[in-house]
Amino acid sequence: MPVDPEDRAALAHAMGCDDYAALMTRLDAHREFVEQQFDQIFADKVSGRDGCGAPEDGAAAWVWSSALADDSADEALHARLVKLGVPEPGDLLARLRGVQQLSRYTGLAERSRQRFDIVAQRALEAARTLEPPERRADTVACFFDLLEAVSRRGAYLALLTEYPQALHRVLSVLGGSRWAAGYLIRHPQLLDELLDDEALDTPFDWPEFKRTLRLRFAAADGVEQQMDLLRHAHQAEVFRILLIDLGGKLSVEHVSDRLSELADAVLDVTIQAVWNQLPKRHRDVQRFAMIAYGKLGGKELGYASDLDLIFL
Asked: What angle do CA 255, 302, 223 make, to 5 degrees?
């Protein structure tokens, strides 16, 4: 939401409200309705699943508590974090304190803060199982970076609360690769992909990927929405490749092949989409190509590679 009073007033007017306060009243009512729907949907799942209620009242629960606000509790907090399997907990302790003091956390609605607390405690409880041990503090700190990024998105807090397997996959990704950790934190909407077991076992079908994306392009409302669709489709496929890779199911060569095939598919869709928006004064069919150089030209793309292209 905008911060400037004039921008807030303009937004309220555009939404048919008398002022910004009236807009926020309407928005909060919608948020409350959505939150109630989530509670109803997940209630049965929570009551029927082991380990999905409140976190066990152990070291993790004590660490993520009011003790963090007590500077005199440093020694005890260090000891509890070591008990949780974090060998050098100093930086992590500072990170946890920082999160609890942020307005993003303190300003959460009560239900969202409860969910945040549950997920935070479960992540600390899971620390002792993370590999490699020397990266446990970094992995948990990265998880709190992600948790901070999604704290205002009730759907993601609900997902991590009600589906522990998603939480464990997140921790596995964050611990498996620093690049993967940064990618997920930058694109938290990819958390949805962590629940899709079928997608991880489905063979890559690039013709179908392009067909589906073109259909979605045709239904999109303008160029900006098409660009958003393209970005999200690309990010989701990169993340799927990454998850399969971290699961040990792809060799380095196969990772490069899949990333290169994805780039080819995205470029094919992009060329056609751009051509469809150009006036056809000279040709109905384009005589235009993108020639791949560098890593893409040799089918050697890595996760952080850019594309070297010549337009012909």
From this structure: 100
DSSP 51: T
Rounded Cα distance between 30 and 14, Å, is 17
Supply the DSSP string of 233-302, one letter for each residue. HHHHHHHHHHHHHHTT-S-HHHHHHHHHHHHHHHHHHHHHHHHHTS--SS-SS----EEEEHHHHTT---
All structural domains of the chain with their residue ranges: 1-48, 53-195, 207-311
Number of neighbours of residue 296 by Cβ within 10 angstroms: 22
N-term to C-term CA, the chain = 43
pLDDT (tens digit, 9 = 90+) per residue, 11-67? 999 999 999 999 999 998 998 888 777 766 655 444 444 333 333 447 788 888 877
Query: How is residue 217 written in tokens?
Result: 């392009």
In degrees to the nearest 10, what's the CA dihedral of 177, 179, 235, 185? 90
Neighbours of 226 (CB within 10 A): 21
Whole-number CA gyration radius for the chain: 23
Encode 70-101: b = buried (16+ Cβ within 10 Å), e = exposed: eeebeeebbebbebbbbeebeebbebbeebbe
The yes/no answer on whether domain 53-195 falls in CATH 1.20.120.1510 is: yes
pTM across the whole model: 0.69
Residue located via tokens 């991880």:
200
- DSSP letter for 203, please: P
* Euclidean distance between CA atoms 165 and 194, whole angstroms: 9
